Amino acid sequence: MTNDLIINNQSLTVALPTGNLDQYIRAAFSVPILSAGEEHALALRLHTENDLDAARQLVMSHLRFVVRIARGYSGYGLALADLIQEGNIGLMKAVKRFDPDAGVRLVSYAVHWVRAEIHEFILRNWRIVKVATTKAQRKLFFNLRSKKQRLGWMNQEEVNGIAEDLGVKPEVVLEMESRLSGQDIGFDLTATDDDEDSHHFAPAAYLTNESNDPALTAEQNEWSAASTSGLVEALKTLDERSRIILEERWLADEKSTLHELADRFEVSAERIRQLEKNAIGKLKKSMLA
Description:
It contains 14 helices and 2 strands; from the N terminus they run E-E-H-H-H-H-H-H-H-H-H-H-H-H-H-H. The chain is mainly alpha-helical and about 290 residues long. It has 3 domains: about 120 residues, Four Helix Bundle (Hemerythrin (Met), subunit A); about 45 residues; about 80 residues, Winged helix-like DNA-binding domain superfamily/Winged helix DNA-binding domain (Arc Repressor Mutant, subunit A, Orthogonal Bundle), CATH 1.10.10.10. The longest helix has 23 residues.
């Protein structure tokens, strides 16, 4: 298992045994933990001298920390090795940005970066269709499971409690619970020997594409032509000023403002608005007649 970090155009490679995951974890936990003084000295070398060996020692001594965090996300059905790999990326980003004079240990600073990378990986790979896109949904995704007190659907009291704890609306909690309870399904499933009727429930069986229907296309074209013709005839029934106002306000590529038309016709902007409203009313009556 290897990761690369670029520091000032130099590549830092961190590698541990790749025979199997257990061997990697044993190797990660065998790396000695740095004392506060050793950690500060290494971080200072990296910060002031871009010392890649110092960066490597900082990363290696914190790999066990990434393993512990990654194990906490094992319930999402993703490989632990992949979670550790992503967490290591977050650790290396934290090492690159760590300020030795900030007055905190690297482990405290890095936890945000490690979790952030793991979160992004889970959201990208947990489902084919994304289940969390907004900030509120992302918060819910990683908290809803731990907040639920039982299997199955939550009652309204539980929903309200979770919404209050996480600072979101109850409707958002219900929507996320529905998303988490769903499953990915292929658009065009094929029947198997065991279930010959399985293809009837595939989305392809009931989500139709009407764009290639000749009858519907002809109907839409006819309706569009009739609407355009009706609009042209209706415009002819208006006086010249009203017609110009509608054309400038609604039909022109570069539409005019009320004030521009008010200056043109030497009236107030409110009068232009009234003329526009009356002209639209006349158009509707003419086209519906």
